[in-house]
Amino acid sequence: MSVPEDITAWPDRLESAAKGTIFDRIVVLSETASTQDAAARACIGLPKDHPATLVVASNQTMGRGQRANNWHDAVGLTLPSSFAIGSEFLSLNNPNLAARAGLAALDTVQHFANDYPIKIKWPNDILATKDENFGGKIAGVLIEHSRDSIVIGIGINCLQTEADLHPSIKDTAISLKQLGCDVQRIDLACKLIESLNHWFNDATEDHIRQHWKQHDALVGLDKKFIYNNQPTTGTVLSIDPLKEIRVQTSAGERTLPVEQTRLISK
């Protein structure tokens, strides 16, 4: 088993990294049931235009993912984090939020795993491949709305070996350690702050579309989507994460709006 690092220096490092960014508060927890819930609680009573509060935990015991799935953390070996930001601080719809958060997670992972292809699977799963026989999900994003805040969770698999992975994800997940990357979680968290600030504060929509296209994991693959309660199956031609998905079906090309579309196939 991997040995978790000491987190006593985390608050100072993270507060230093957050200076001049969208984050005005940093909360570091040794353990929490859910960083999503902790971030939402930290912002109760704040105005609707409040800047971001970031919650980072060394251990998360009841993490959750998209569509009510569990997010499996290994004690002291992942980086569970969530940030809550005022609903009027950002005038962005869900696809825009998802794209920006997903690309921030992608860039954070890519920074430490630059020798390996890192891809983004719509809407915002981050995939890493070590070789043709070994790869999987390395990070995920969850977006929720809580009172007057938007809460965005990002979980990154950092220090797990195969033995540390939950049985339900052994065949579908991968960690930075399994890629051969020697990473301290505090360094990962500092890079995540930098990446989030860039994508939420500086990046244009054209930049989002261009960067997504360079790292898209689905183009060229046969996938199944649900739109308007109807299935669409075919080859993904292109994805504009802010607008639409183009799919070549047996009946011709279809265009699906991202805000009302859901990916079904794995």
The largest β sheet comes out as: 7 strands, mixed
Count of DSSP E strands?
12
Give the domain tally.
Answer: 2
Number of helices: 5
How helix-rich are the residues, as a percent range?
Answer: 10-25%
Q: Overall 3D geometry?
A: globular
- The CATH topology of the largest domain comes to BirA Bifunctional Protein, domain 2
Tell me the structural class.
alpha+beta
Cα-atom radius of gyration? 18 Å
CATH hierarchy, class of the largest domain: Alpha Beta
Strand order, largest beta sheet? 1-2-3-7-6-5-4
Report the average pLDDT across residues: 91
CATH superfamily of the largest domain: Bira Bifunctional Protein, Domain 2
User: What is the distance, rounded to the nearest whole angstrom, between the alpha carbons of the first and last residues?
Assistant: 30 Å
Low-confidence stretches: none
- Secondary-structure element pattern, one letter each: HEHEEHEEEEHHEEEEE
Examine the secondary-structure arrangement and name the CATH architecture of the largest domain.
Answer: 2-Layer Sandwich
Q: Beta fraction of the residues?
A: 25-35%
Summarize it.
The protein is an alpha+beta fold and 266 residues long. The protein has two domains: 10-215, BirA Bifunctional Protein, domain 2 (2-Layer Sandwich); 222-263, SH3 type barrels (Roll), CATH 2.30.30.
